[in-house]
């Protein structure tokens, strides 16, 4: 797929078929994620693939509650990928402090999108979840309390292959050349 077509085809998928995902497809998604750029090449990430049905159900249940149930669909996804931010190196920590920027979160976003774009290329659907009970997920997966779980990514074959129109700001609202002049 041409890159722009791939970017258009990637969308948050919240309905999945009851069909397992081939391991080689998951591995190619992880390979795309591994190749992502990061500040000082620190690669401050690790991934847990959760495909064991019982474990997966337990993790999915940490993404919603009775009151806030919009992530309930995660129960349907045959695979969950847990994205953990690892400590970046000393140099990066100093740079983050000096520049008052959290490079590692930028890095996590890039690697997550690499993974999701490759999944799209593989005919798979994904949805990044930022809303979940981090403590609960850590407990189930034996992740040390000192780590941060930044995203849970649902993955599976989409129920529909229809690409929804994207709800996005217009280009005039977000782009200007040479100085900050946006048409709001
Ligand atoms: C950091 C991040 C966190 C997100 N968290 C959730 C979430 O908890 N639940 C959900 O259903 N979608 C979540 N999304 C998906 C966004 O709602 C979605 O990307 C956005 O509405 C644009 O739609 P699209 O992905 O279909 O293009 C998240 C996306 C990102 C990038």
Please outline the helices and strands.
Blueprint: H1 3-9, H2 23-34, E1 45-50, H3 53-60, E2 79-85, H4 90-99, H5 103-121, E3 125-129, H6 134-141, E4 148-156, H7 171-174
Antiparallel strand pairs: 1-2, 2-4, 3-4
Helix pairs in contact: 2-5
The structure holds flavin mononucleotide (FMN).
* Largest sheet report: 4 strands, antiparallel
Shape: globular
| Number of DSSP E strands | 4
Helix percent band? 25-40%
Strand order of the largest sheet: 1-2-4-3
Give the bound compounds.
flavin mononucleotide
Rg is 18 Å
Q: Distance between the terminal alpha carbons, to the nearest Å?
A: 33 Å
Number of helices: 7
Structural category = alpha+beta
Reading the helices and strands in chain order gives HHEHEHHEHEH
Q: Give the overall average pLDDT.
A: 96
- Catalogue the unreliable spans: none
Tell me the fraction of residues in β-strands, as a range: 5-15%
